[in-house]
Every structure is written in C-alpha cells, then in structure tokens.
Amino acid sequence: NKSSEVIFIVSSGLTDVFQEAVSVADVVLWAALYPLLSDSSELRSVRGWFERVGDLAACQAAANRVLHGKGVEALKTFLQKHPATQTQRRDSPTNATEVHSNPTSEIEEAAQIWSEGLKSSPAVTERKHPVLPQEGKRNVLLPSALPYVNNVPHLGNLIGCVLSADVFARYGRLRGWNLLYICGTDEYGTATENKAREEGLTPQEICDKYHAIHADIYQWFQIDFDFFGRTTTKQQTEIAQDIFWRLHERGFLLEDTVEQLRCESCQRFLADRFVEGECPHCRYPEARGDQCDKCGRLINAVELRNPQCKVCKETPVICSSKHLFLNLPKLEDELEQWLDKSTSSGDWTLNARHITRSWIRDGLKPRCITRDLQWGTPVPHEDYKEKVFYVWFDAPIGYLSITANYTDQWEKWWKNPQQVELYNFMAKDNVPFHSVVFPCSLLGAQDNYTLVNHLIATEYLNYEDTKFSKSRGVGVFGDMAKDTGIPSDVWRFYLLYLRPEGQDSAFSWSDMALKNNSELLNNLGNFINRAGMFVSKFFDGCVPEMLLNEDDKRLIAQVRWELKQYIQLLDKVRIRDALKCILNISRHGNQYMQLNEPWKKIKGGDGDRQRAGTVTGVSVNVACLLSAVLEPYMPSVSHTIRQQLQAPHTCVSAMLQNTGTFICTLPAGHRIGAVSPLFQKLENEQIEVLRKRFGGQQVCKRHLSIINQGSPAETMKMCFPERAKQLTALVAEQGNKLRGLKAQKADKSVIDDEVEKLLQLKKQLSLAEGKNPEPAAQKGKKK
Ligand SMILES: *[C@@H]1O[C@H](CO)[C@@H](O)[C@H](O)[C@H]1NC(C)=O
Ligand SMILES: *[C@@H]1O[C@H](CO)[C@@H](O)[C@H](O)[C@H]1NC(C)=O
Ligand SMILES: *[C@@H]1O[C@H](CO)[C@@H](O)[C@H](O)[C@H]1NC(C)=O
Ligand SMILES: *[C@@H]1O[C@H](CO)[C@@H](O)[C@H](O)[C@H]1NC(C)=O
C-alpha cells in the first residue's frame, strides 16, 4: 500500500519533472524496492539507478510524505506482516501464502469462527425423487458417459466416467446443489450384435445380461446414481426420432450414396465391427471396419485391404446404399458461437478444448447418421425403413431418454438452458462427440435444449505400463476388483489418487500397496484413530475442554486454508488435486499431535493435562472434518468415522456449504462412540476368499505368512496368473542377457549383479506359481 501511494504521488507530478532517462516503470520499481535498497549497501549493480531515481525531487517529496521522514523505519509494522515471500511457487488456484506466514488476524479469525461451532445447522434435505430443477437453486445436471453394454468395464473406464462423476455428484449434494446424476448402458450397435452371435443369445438377452453386470459393479463401487437406465427403451425411440424429424424439417440432413461392403453369404452389409482387414494406414492385419486398434485412425470399411466378413470369413463385395448425413458444415457458425460462450464461461478441461479446436480446424464434414443394421433405433423415414441410427447419433440422446425413463418431466432438465448447468464426464476419446457432433444435433433440432456447460475429460489410465485389454486378459476389471477382498473404498481412493487429470497415469499393484500403507494407514487412518482413541482412553469418551493457544490456532487456520483449497479445487472438478488437500489436513494433524504429545502430557500436572485435553479436542474435531471431506471419495470410511465419533448428521454440510468454514462440531462434553481402526489387515476369511478366487493357484504356506505379515498387495500380485506369465518371460529374457554377457566374457562384478537379478526374478516367479521360493533365495544369499 505504501508503495502504491508513492507511485501515485510521483506519477501525478510526473510530466514536467521527468527526464527521458526515467520512466514510470522506474518509479514503480523504485518504490517497490525502497525498503530493500534505501538503507542497504547491497545489490551494488542497481544502486546507481536507485539513487538516480531517488534524486528526483518528486520521488523525494513523495517518500517524505509517506514515510514522515522516518525512512524505512516507518514501514516496519507493514513489513513484519509480510515476511519475505517464499521463492518456491505453489501450484494452487489461489496465490495465498502458507498460513503460518499469514497475518495474525487471519489466524485469529479462523480460531474465532471455529470456536463459535455449529450455530444454525443447515437443513439437511432428504433427496426426493424425482429430482427436478428448482427456482433459486444451483441446478446441476450430471450425466456420466454411457458405458458400452457388451463389455465388463475396467478400472480405466471407471475412473474416466462413473467414478469421477460420482465424486462430483456427492460433493455437489453436500454443497447443497440441486443435482441429478444419471447414467445407463449404451446398448445398440454392431458390437452388441456380434457379442450376441458369440454367446448364442439374442441382442436383447445380451443387453439384459450385461446391464445387470454393470449395475452390480457400480453398486459395489458405491456409485450413487439417481438413476441408472439403458438406451433400449421406448423413450429412446421417441426422442431420437423426434430429433431426427426436427433436423429433417429444418434442412440439416443430407442424402448420399455410400459404398459399403456386403457379405453375400450372410446377406448383410458389413459395417464397423462386422468386417476386419489390413489397416490402410499402418498395415495392422486386424483392423476393424471403423477404426484401427493399432494406430487409432478412423477407417472407412471399403478402404480395408483384404477385408473379411467377421462371421463367415468370406470376402465381401462392394455395394452402394443410400444414407443420411448430418450437415455439420451448415451448423458450423452456430456451433462456433455456442462454443465460444460455453468454453469461456464454463470449465472445460484443457484436453477437451484442444480436441474440439483441432476437430473444427480440420474442417467439419457431413457425418453419416444411419447404418444398415437391425439392432438400433429405427429410422422413421419411408426411404430408410431397413436402417437404424448410427450409435454416435443415437447414444448421446440416451442422456435425454434415460432422464425421461426416470421422470416424465425430463424436459425440465433438458430443455431448460436458463436454469440448468450441464456437466459431461468422459474419457478424452469421447470429446468430439460431446463438443461437436451432439451439440450440432441439438442446435439443429432447435428445441431450446440444454447444452453442455462444463466438459470434463480425463486422459487414459494404463495398466502396469500397458493398456487394459479384455481380449488379452490384461488389467483389472470391475467384476474382479470386488473379488480381491480389498474394500471398495480403498479401490476408490487409489483410482482417484491416480485419476489421469492432465496426463496419462498407470495403475500399479505395488504403488497401490505403497499408497495404501503410507497415505491411508499411516497418515489418514493413524491420525483419525489416535484422535478418537485419546478421547476414549484419556477422557472417558467425552470431548475435553479446549483452551486454544497459538499452536492450536495456527493448526485451525492451516486446516481451514486446506479446506478452502479443497472447495476451490472441487468446484473446478480437480478431483485428484483436492484429494491431496485431504491428505494434507491429516498430515498437519499428525504433526500437531507429534509436536504436542498429548499421551505424555496427560501424565503431567494440571497445566499439562489441560494441554493434553485441548490438543485431543482439537484433533478429534479435525478428524470430524476429515470425515466430511472424505465423503465424496470414500463414502463408507467417511460414514464409519462419523459413527465412531457420534458426529451430528449436519456437520458435513455445515462445513462444506460455505466457502470452507472449519468449525468445532464436537464441543466439550460431546460423547463419542466406540473407536476402532478404520483400515484393517486382511483377515483369514478374506484369505479363504482369495484362495477360492484364484483357485488355479495353490495358496502356499509362504503366501499365508506374507499375508499375515500384512502385505496383501504382494499376495494379490502373486496370485495373478498374468503375473506368472510375465515373470516367466522376464526370467527367460534375463537368462539370455546373462548368457550373452558370459559369452562376451564380461566383468565378474557385472555378471554377479545380473545373476542376482535373475535369482530375484526366479524367486518371484516361484511365489507367483505358488511354490516355495526358499531354495532359490538361499542360493542368492550365499554368494
Ligand atoms: C423405463 O424403461 C424400462 C425398460 O424399457 C421400462 O421397463 C420402464 O417401464 C421404464 N420406466 C418408465 C417410468 O418409463
Ligand atoms: C427456453 O426455455 C426457457 C425456460 O427454461 C424459456 O425461458 C425461454 O424463453 C425458452 N427459449 C426459447 C427460444 O424457446
Ligand atoms: C500439500 O502439502 C504439500 C507439502 O506440505 C504441498 O507441497 C502441497 O502444495 C499441498 N497441496 C495442497 C493441494 O494443498
Ligand atoms: C490396504 O491396507 C488395508 C489395511 O489398511 C488392507 O486391508 C488392504 O487389503 C490393503 N490393500 C492393499 C492393496 O494393499
């Protein structure tokens, strides 16, 4: 403030005083550096300049007026409040400095608000179905990308859509938003027809079967949909056909003849997945009719070399057939206008912005919306009676029809852009369909549709440095996760910790064990458990009297700061970053306990016992806050914490509905319940489950002892047949390498190192195969 006063005074008298050598920038810098340079002999290189500017009469006058002739002394109190800024930059949404360097007033304020506690508890409104937009509320419509029905979703699918959207939905509800979270299986298309043929079922039977599998998996992962529907409904047909007619009447559809592959022996056109051949771009021999799995490029089926019907392996012939196209170029101007508005006012992840831009830059072309298939929404037009809508025209309409299946008042959500904010969650490969193709359908249909305001796209989650692949049996799939015996909360935690936000990430078993043990057990679990245990053990289960000193107040302010970050981050859907704030809160809590040692002070005199009480009381309140901020991430754990602490139902929303008020929700005298550790070791029953689950592998004694030593992740890893295969390959590779080295007469120490590596691999392999690894291990040690 003082500096700006100087600048103001000097600049108002500038014009005639200034010689060409001194500019406004000089004055600004001079004033800013005044405290540093005015009575120091350092920074000699700039002293000349500093004095030259300071010699100006205007500068001297201004400095005198502001500093009252006391020189830099006059700035003392001001400077003490703002210690030298830290050099390292924080990557956080605000530039707020750490709490411990904040002015005392902020710490006092945090402590004051905290002490006031729960005053008027916000009404916790029960969710009443159907959830509909309400006047004066923030109405959030939250559909998660619809998973394709014919596959069991893998962990990457989960984190890309339903799990990420679930965290945001839970968070939004705690914030008091009026929010509708829907999802469902996307059931039409060639993939379903193929699967039906493979399994000898009808497409409808396939959909029924897999819809139930999806629903089970999401339920196990505690995905709290308001409604989980499907696309094979009468609402889908009605709405898709309505949009089609509206586009048709308004002249946004084109007709064109398309060359297509047709299998004469099967009597069918071979779209997309019904045909395989060599990729025209990269020559990958098993490219599909719509896309190459190897190079990822889109393919027009007639471009495939050596095409083969997937069913009968005959060579198809080229035939032509009439199709309908959505005229994207005709909608481009309107699309651009809408995109400008949506991307500038909403939260679009960076990848979503880039992908959309590059699609438009490459030029929009008319896009085919019909297909020669049976399993789909029928095209209602006379001339296209044999055809259905192409899934990418059809599938996003599923959001509307699923909402319509949930409530007949669905238009209150989907034709209400004034009142409703729409968030779309997806993996990045789905972006163009949500940012360009589907919005064009809706814009062209001109029926006041709600268009996406916030487009949240993740990068990819890989599996141990490779890709998830059902056909190759690589990766963990939703149905397997629940059979591992690892609680769903722990899965959620680890997947969200890894959420590919901004860049790809990879699932790894050993990292999961590490994060599990370091962050969940040692950091979070340990803090919450100790806080509760101290109340139980030292204070008979009653929260003790708290008399805050500076240490306590500083902790409260730190926690409040992290809570604010958490809210700012989650408001921007930075789910992974916000999780780090939670872990920081419990880290602060652990440090605070470690420093204040209530377990020692409780044995001391009155003063010490008083201190132990305060520290315990503050800590258990931090634990209560943790249960609130954990709710979106680990709902069961969050619930258990609140149960153990007998925390009031309202404490969660109370702390999250404003911009982050950490308050004392467990006042002195509050009685907590029975406390027990949140994260437990694997028990014997769970081992039995594991043994059965991985029935092919004998769980040997060695495994049991490892499990009992508390390293379940090791066990999991070993029990996977995939792992054994991988290790066999590694052992062979290492053996070859070693033979090569010996043939080259390499240095003995080099060879010894490689031998040691080989022995380690062999040991892991025998474990993975359920054998006793000891002999190998001993040989390794003798060396
Ligand atoms: C929702 O769709 C299912 C499946 O088609 C149907 O059985 C059910 O009656 C529909 N519910 C409503 C309210 O339309
Ligand atoms: C669209 O719907 C809103 C109500 O959400 C209404 O206020 C508005 O007038 C409608 N606009 C058009 C063009 O129909
Ligand atoms: C959490 O704490 C670490 C180290 O204490 C810090 O580097 C990081 O910025 C903090 N993260 C958040 C999101 O507050
Ligand atoms: C994580 O640790 C908990 C104990 O806190 C244990 O029950 C769970 O099985 C562990 N999971 C993994 C993958 O290590």
TrEMBL record:
It catalyses: tRNA(Met) + L-methionine + ATP = L-methionyl-tRNA(Met) + AMP + diphosphate. It comes from the Eukaryota. This is Methionine--tRNA ligase, cytoplasmic. Residues 82-105 are annotated as: Disordered. SUPFAM superfamilies: Anticodon-binding domain of a subclass of class I aminoacyl-tRNA synthetases, Methionyl-tRNA synthetase (MetRS), Zn-domain, Nucleotidylyl transferase, S15/NS1 RNA-binding domain. Residues 723-779 form the WHEP-TRS domain. Its EC number is 6.1.1.10. One of its GO terms (molecular function) is methionine-tRNA ligase activity. InterPro entries: aa-tRNA-synth_I_CS, Anticodon_Met, Met-tRNA_ligase_1, Met-tRNA_synth, Methionyl/Leucyl_tRNA_Synth, MetRS_core, MetRS_Zn, Rossmann-like_a/b/a_fold. Residues 724-771 form a coiled coil. GO terms for cellular component: aminoacyl-tRNA synthetase multienzyme complex; cytosol. It is found in: Cytoplasm. Keywords: Aminoacyl-tRNA synthetase, ATP-binding, Coiled coil, Cytoplasm, Ligase, Nucleotide-binding, Protein biosynthesis. The gene is mars1. It is an enzyme of class 6 (ligase). CDD domains: Anticodon_Ia_Met, MetRS_core. Residues 83-105 have a biased composition (Polar residues). GO terms for biological process: methionyl-tRNA aminoacylation. PROSITE patterns: AA_TRNA_LIGASE_I, WHEP_TRS_1, WHEP_TRS_2. Belongs to the class-I aminoacyl-tRNA synthetase family.
